[in-house]
Design brief:
This protein is an alpha+beta fold and 423 residues long. It has 7 helices and 22 strands. The protein has a 6-stranded mixed β-sheet, with no helix packed on it. It binds ligand MTE and molybdenum atom (MO).
Length: 423
């Protein structure tokens, strides 16, 4: 098995390694015992995550009965979720509500199925040839304590699409939905302010309608054929099976997630996640902890870990417990940027990715903004006993996780723990 030039394992091996690790974890506690010294984990080799998550390996968060991605054959075509049948409608919402919203939004050129003006895949791909962009983004749910996956997404900025519709009047917000079995009870929608949709600050990533993931058409399970991608947000803004966009004069965040007691304007959090390691480790072998870190709105300065030796019934620690804050916390190693030509799909150069330098082909931040990288830390040889390993991200403002927003409703950000015994 040969290594890539950066010392990491080739992508195929990573995928297999992940499967083996997952299988052995599923089989219950195991001993980390290496038969030959060559197999002792080094920090880099211990890392089980491919840089780009294969489309079918993302953790899936989907509503609907049946879930749209489980449709096949005629049912999938009937739902307009194949490349040939897909249509996008863009309409003005007639909504008014005195005294808050006095006049409805209008759109000069609506696009509807009824009058034959809805956008089809060919039109979207044609727009893509002129305005298409690509960027790397991690998907993460506001309510789930594990990153869902990371993709190279490709599509057309929402602003270029709205430009097709002529003059917009009294538009303060854009909201959008995916296929929902034509049942109003199953609508899952999200929204953006007009400004967020239209204006992207230089160096930032635009909201876009994605039609490719990791160089391939987006499969149904990932929300294809077309999905919204909102770079700075948790997954609930990145609506899958996208079919309908409305412009409205209702200025309130009319996201389905807002009705479920979540902060609909929360940004992706800078956070470290700890991989589930073995529950038992053989004494006398170096122990390595691994995980992933997502770069949220405030970026990543470093990842730190704290190893706590504990007795049989350790006192539980809140994330602001003085013992925990005292540490000592020590810096973990971020896996460096990969050899881009080996992780990107054939024909894609890192120079063309947003967030990357056009000359050097390297990302302007590491991990890429709203992207994720793996970390690891060697814990050395530990004496027999019980341990807890915690990790936290420190953002570029100097805040150590779970700060600056410890409240869960703006995104889970609690410190994760790997508990293990050394035998
Ligand atoms: N149409 C639709 N889009 C959706 C959802 C959904 O249930 N229906 N779930 C959202 C949520 S809450 C998350 S976290 C992400 C998950 O994306 P993934 O399944 O590709 O990992 O999809 C979002 N888009
Ligand atoms: Mo979510």
């Amino acid at each position: 098995m040969s290594n890539n030039s950066d010392g990491s394992l080739p992508r195929r091996t990573f995928v297999q390694g992940t499967a083996v690790l997952a299988a052995s974890l599923a089989a219950g506690p195991r001993l980390l015992r290496a038969a030959d010294p060559q197999a002792a984990p080094t920090v880099e080799k211990a890392n089980p995550h491919p840089f780009l998550t294969p489309a079918e390996d993302f953790y899936t968060v989907a509503r609907g009965n049946p879930k749209p991605h489980t449709l096949t054959g005629d049912a999938l075509a009937d739902a307009r979720l194949t490349a040939d049948t897909w249509r996008l409608e863009i309409e003005a919402d007639p909504f008014v509500e005195e005294p808050l919203v006095k006049v409805p939004a209008t759109l000069e050129r609506p696009r509807t199925i009824a009058d034959g003006t809805a956008l089809d895949m060919q039109a979207l791909l044609e727009l893509g040839r002129r305005h298409g962009v690509k960027y790397i983004k991690a998907m993460q749910c506001l309510n789930i304590p594990t990153p869902l996956g990371q993709g190279l997404w490709e599509g057309v900025p929402l602003c270029d699409l709205l430009r097709l519709c002529g003059k917009l009047n009294n538009v303060r917000r854009i909201y959008y939905r995916g296929f929902h079995n034509r049942d109003p009870q199953q609508i899952f929608q999200s929204s953006l302010s007009y400004t967020q949709a239209i204006e992207t600050p230089p160096g930032e990533l635009p909201v876009f309608l994605a039609y490719r993931l990791n160089g391939e058409p987006i499969p149904p399970v990932r929300g294809g054929p077309v999905r919204m991608i909102v770079p700075w947000s948790h997954g609930f803004k990145s609506i899958k099976w996208l079919q309908h966009i409305f412009v409205t004069n209702d200025y309130r965040a009319n996201d389905t997630y807002a009705l479920q007691n979540n902060d609909p304007e929360s940004t992706l959090k800078t956070a470290a996640y700890v991989d589930a390691g073995p529950e038992q480790v053989v004494a006398g072998r170096p122990v390595v902890a691994t995980g992933q870190v997502i770069s949220g709105a405030s970026g990543v300065l470093r990842v730190e870990a704290w190893l706590r030796a504990v007795g049989d019934n350790p006192r539980p620690l809140a994330d602001d417990d003085p013992e925990l804050l005292r540490g000592p916390w020590r810096e973990c190693q971020l896996l460096p940027p990969p050899d881009w030509s080996s992780v990107l799909p054939a024909g894609v150069s890192s120079r063309e990715l947003l967030g990357f330098d056009e000359q050097t082909g390297q990302p302007s931040a590491w991990p890429p903004r709203y992207g994720m990288a793996s970390w690891s830390v060697g814990l050395g040889e530990l004496s027999a006993g019980k341990y807890e390993l915690r990790a936290r991200a420190v953002d570029r403002n100097g805040f150590a996780q779970p700060e600056p927003r410890p409240q869960q409703k703006s995104g889970r950000n609690g410190l994760q723990v790997w508990r293990f015994s050394v035998l």
